[in-house]
């Protein structure tokens, strides 16, 4: 199935979930100044006294002015698009442009992030123990997205669990043709659904939820702890 043959569906999710590393704090500029049109002048002024400001903001030029968002929680929507690197590719980008990923439910987002965290821990041969903290972001999705769900798209190369080559090529083609993103069945959580959004204004109303710790047993993430309540949950493989 080519990109031209993929249907477009309206996706409206309240309570979608994105889980991110807590190492990345909100960016004050996005939070405090609601009008993105003011950002370039403010950045220019700030750089005169703080040349490191761009390191925290990332590359703002990667987001078209008309698609930038500001106000409460804007950092959670903007950061995936301003902080990109070819050293950090993912399913629907080779790292040259940003994608905001979210699941339609907490469990879906959890299993998606656990998979990628396990790959990192294995690659770096980390010792067993409680590892980096994560934070849950609850948000709304409202966009017309290219739809990879449905039995007729089962087995699409973009959903390959082992390689992202076809999905990255598809995403580049779709984005170049004006797509806002994709909605697809979760590869890591059967029954779950995910979105990969190409622009920050496809989502809204992000609110920080739980703080989470993942426990690495040397081979896999076997436990997840809600660091607020202290509750610990065992991770059961659902693949």
Could you please describe the fold and organization of this structure?
The chain has two domains: 3-23 and 92-234, no CATH class; 25-82, no CATH class. The protein contains six helices and eight strands. It has helices at residues 28-32, 39-47, 53-57, 74-82, 106-123, 165-176; strands spanning 8-21, 100-103, 129-147, 181-185, 193-197, 203-216, 221-226, 232-234. Strands 1, 2, 3, 4, 5, 6, 7 and 8 form an eight-stranded mixed β-sheet that branches. The longest helix is centred in the middle third of the chain and has 18 residues, at 106-123.
Secondary-structure map:
Elements: E1 8-21, H1 28-32, H2 39-47, H3 53-57, H4 74-82, E2 100-103, H5 106-123, E3 129-147, H6 165-176, E4 181-185, E5 193-197, E6 203-216, E7 221-226, E8 232-234
Parallel strand pairs: 3-4
Antiparallel strand pairs: 1-3, 2-5, 3-6, 4-5, 6-7, 7-8
Which descriptors would you attach to this protein?
8-stranded mixed β-sheet, globular, alpha+beta, 239 residues, 2 domains
Total domains, how many? 2
Strand content: 25-35%
Number of strands: 8
Describe the sheet with the most strands: 8 strands, mixed
Spans of at least 5 consecutive residues whose pLDDT stays below 50 are none
Terminus-to-terminus distance: 25 Å
Shape: globular
> What order do the SSEs take from the amino end to the carboxyl end, as H and E?
EHHHHEHEHEEEEE
Q: Mean pLDDT across all residues, rounded?
A: 89
Structural class: alpha+beta
Helix content: 10-25%
- Counted by DSSP, the helix tally is 6
Q: Roughly how many Å is the radius of gyration?
A: 18 Å
